Amino acid sequence: MAHIEMSEQELRERTRALLEASNPDRVDQYTFRGVQYDHGLAWVHFPEGYGGLGLNPKMQAVVNDELRKNAKTFYEDLNINPIGIGMGAPVVLTHGTDEMKKTLLRRIFTGEDIWCQLFSEPGAGSDVAGLSSRAVRDGDDWVVNGQKVWTTLAHISRWGMLVTRTNPDVPKHLGMSYFLLDMKAPGVEVLPLYQITGEAEFNEVFLNDVRIPHERMLGDEGDGWKVAITTLMNERTALGGGSGRRGGGPVGVLQALWKQNAERHSGASRAVLRDKITQLAIKSELLRLTSHRARAASKAGNPGPEGSVGKLAQAELYKKVWECSLDVLGADALVYEPGYELRRPEAEERRDHLLYAKYQFLRSRANSIEGGTSEIMRNILGERVLGLPGEPRVDKDVAWKDVPRGG
Amino acid sequence: MEFAFTEEHEELRQTVRRFLEGKSDEQAVRALMATERGYSEEVWRQMAEQMALQAMIVPEQYGGAGFGPVELSIVLEEMGRTLLCAPYLSTAVLAVNALLAVGSESAQADILPGIAAGETVATVAFVDAGGGWEIDDVQTRATADGAAWRLTGRKAYVLDGHVADVLLVVARAADGVGLFRVEPNASGLRRDLTPTLDLTRKLASIELDGVAATRVDAGGDGAAALRKAVALTAVALAAEQVGGAQKCLELSTEYAKTRLQFGRPIGSFQAIKHRCADMLVAVEFAKSAAYHAAFRAAESDDEAEILAAAHLAKSFCSDAYFDVTNETIQVHGGMGFTWEHPAHLYFKRAKSSAVLFGDPLEHREKLAEHLGL
Ligand SMILES: Cc1cc2nc3c(=O)[nH]c(=O)nc-3n(C[C@H](O)[C@H](O)[C@H](O)COP(=O)(O)OP(=O)(O)OC[C@H]3O[C@@H](n4cnc5c(N)ncnc54)[C@H](O)[C@@H]3O)c2cc1C
To answer: What b/e sequence results for A283-312 when a residue is b if at least 16 CB atoms lie within 10 Å of its CB, and e otherwise?
Structure first.
């Protein structure tokens, strides 16, 4: 499937036409984003009728630029519905039925339906294909039992992307299936998990005799791993894109903090910190440019293993940027104003730079764990991109039920 | 959009690659680096006659191809892959950039056609002994002697200065910094080959003791224009660094697939695999930096933006190239430490190219100023 060609000029005109039809400063999020979807400007690389125009994905930047320029309100997809937009939509588009595309995609984009990803389990993280939750066929339904963990946003989600085992007698990758789980269904229990930041953005999800109709299976029985890979590749691209604008994102906050706090430092330590910030600014800009290059080179369809370049680089870079922010704050780094009282994060919570940096110093520790750890990214780059040999495997051709596992 | 190579660009890359694989393999590099001249006159001629490589950024009116920084960077990237030994950076990049920046029309008409035709080896003596690539460091003096000029000073790290037919010298006159031409055999001029860390790129020192010179710039203070010429040369050099780094990544990956220890390829050990993955990320970032700087230089008319992109590229690509060559030695074990293996050739090229035209710290210092840090 080739991309349709459209000039930047025409796309800008279409975006302005959207703003004529609906103005985000005047109507609510759901209304405006609904109209944006109907204009094919939600995700321009999707087909017409499903919120897109069949263009190259890099053209979305043109739409966003025009939206930012012409209205005060701009919705960041990541704040609206990170998992639904980043992963749910491409998965539904690739593996879903026409019925699913018609009923689900628009509500993902508007944010009416928040989505979550039910992959990780207590015994299966990096090795997610080793998971133990089970689905057993019962008439037209599947009955699921098991426990999921680290499920971001499960507490406010309408739909969950669930991978679970449907056949324990074949090797692990072959015995899983992928379902859309109604998070309101009986037997789904969501409990908050208290995190390093004091927040609970993720959850434990217990599944007790949860019934899922067979038509909510994505792909065929036993295709779970294939659909999961589509999900994960899109997740990594979503987590490795850097900032849309030069000097934006975390390094923009760091630079602003430096301008307010440079006076705290003198002599050699000031020079060293300044060079450190410059190096981080350079890498941030290169992260942005590299993801831009990757998008320009991308063929139609879902991203491949190269996406792990951005995921790995962004995780390691952002951790360093926030560490450096605390260095810039000097002794003030001893204070943590928000405290650690358990709270649920609010998507629209506005923090000032200083508090935001302290919070992100803690939050960014997850960058090299969530969506696949940095070690797993290096394995993928080494094996799938550079073609280096894999490690000796003890679980490859063994039935899942015969593989030793802990927790 | 920020950068996109065209099909013509890809074709250029492939043609240059094929040519260099034939003319500049490891054996050729090793043979040339052991000579004092440092390059093959025959290959130099073929580069001009078959490929018009020296003509890349020379304007068409002077017999050139009239290309810009993007096409030049493609050529340099390929040269970096094979460590081509030739006075290309000095002649076709630095000297041309300097002449285009400050040269008078008559000097351009006089010198550029010979460069484009591959008949001339030219260079710019920029750095004063004990100084750096900062134009304010230039102390060599130019004094008027009737209509002619006389130069006095000591120049160091002159690219191919021992063989250049056209010697251009940056010197300080009463009205500012200018560009002067001296005859290589003029009296009072002495040039010596420098024993270099990197044998694949020759450098010379030049002493000037009241040497007769002609002024080749268009007059006035050329400091700003020369600074830009150096920045454009640094952008080309960054592309050369990318080519070398990519080649080293390939050498390391290949070796990691084939070298067996403990009954398995060393690339199946994560300690090695993860080093290779980190090299890949560094090379991808270096490409973004170098390509972006070349496209900025070609397409932007904002001087400060061009310089900032050049500083970013030269600092990042220098560090990335060095790190990748360093890791290449490690991945190859004892083999990587031998003279026979090419790892050290890239390692030394990486270090020398990091220092040429300003080291990473100096470029970051300027970028920090640009960012208002
Ligand atoms: C903030 C946050 C949000 C998350 N949100 C979600 C979510 O919404 N949905 C979801 O399903 N999951 C989610 N996760 C889970 C995440 O995907 C897992 O934590 C991650 O895949 C790692 O699994 P693990 O925690 O079990 O660690 P483990 O896999 O046990 O890893 C422990 C350590 O061992 C290393 N390791 C493991 N295997 C290898 C190997 N083969 N080679 C080298 N090193 C190895 C790891 O790199 C790591 O350093 C989230 C995690 C975080 C931190």
So the answer is: bbbbbbbbbbbbbeebeeebbeebbbbbbb
